[in-house]
Amino acid sequence: MTTMTAEELRTNVEKALEEIRPFLQSDGGDISLVSIDNENSVKVKLEGACVGCSVNQMTLKSGVEMTIKKYAPQIEEVVNIAE
Fold first, then answer.
1. Which DSSP letter does residue 5 get?
2. Is-above-0.85 flag for pTM?
3. Cross-strand partners of 43
4. Is 31 within 8 Å of 20 (Cβ atoms)?
5. d(CA 35, CA 28)
6. 3-class state of residue 78 by DSSP
7. SS3 42
8. By C-alpha distance, which of 81, 76, 82, 58 is closest to 13?
9. pLDDT (tens digit, 0 to 9) for every residue of the chain, 83 residues total?
10. What is the spatial distance between Cα 71 and Cα 63, in angstroms, rounded to a whole number?
């Protein structure tokens, strides 16, 4: 497997977030990409209703991380940056 360039990686992570976003928005929330560190750690920020939601950690791990890894397999972790 060839490693993606930083630009390809960012593009793929954004594609993953686009796939997730409608589900979050239907619950009054949203998500944005903060950064990609060391080309294997993605920092995101949950917004709106997602901020105080008790299931956001589960959503982050199961939904967001899984979807991002589908687009960018080299990503090892997804971290939510709290406000």
1. P
2. no
3. 35, 79
4. yes
5. 23
6. strand
7. strand
8. 76
9. 567 889 999 999 999 999 999 988 988 889 999 999 998 999 999 888 777 776 666 666 778 899 999 999 999 999 888 75
10. 13
